Amino acid sequence: xxxxxxxxxxxxxxxxxxxxGLSITIPYIFRRPxxxxxxxxxxxxxxxxxxxxxFKIDDCIACSQCVKICPxxxxxxxxxxxxxxxxxxxxxxxxxxxxxxxxxxxPCPTECILMGPTFDLVGYTRDEVIIDYADRDNPRTFxxxxxxPYPITSFARK
Length: 158
Hints:
The chain is an alpha+beta fold. 17% of the residues lie in helices and 16% in strands. The strands form two sheets. The chain has a four-stranded antiparallel β-sheet with strand order 2-3-5-6, with no helix packed on it. Strands 1-4 form a two-stranded antiparallel sheet. The model is unreliable at 149-158 (pLDDT under 50).
């Protein structure tokens, strides 16, 4: 059996925590709602955002450091030749697996792979989000036909 003091203390703690919660919630009742009409209005992306990769295919020496360090094995690379004579035949990133951790950018000796600000990658199938950056004949565009807004040598859908 609880004493009157324990019962009153429980009631007081319940009321106090309710008022603390309401003091945080009630000011939001009087604010106007903030709705962003996406995709017509795009959100402001911070500089530290890690979006889709920027890849400079002509600078890549096919060292495979990005492939080795990727924790989820979402990068596939194939090249003809080695070193400065290497020509990329395949540089594919599977964005269904990618964690956007930016670990692939750190070991790159030529800094040819960077994280970009673009986050919009939509498709109806999973195959549409597997991007081959080495496909020079099929550059990537958004669904409305607009090309990607940041510099990249090649960005193609499979």
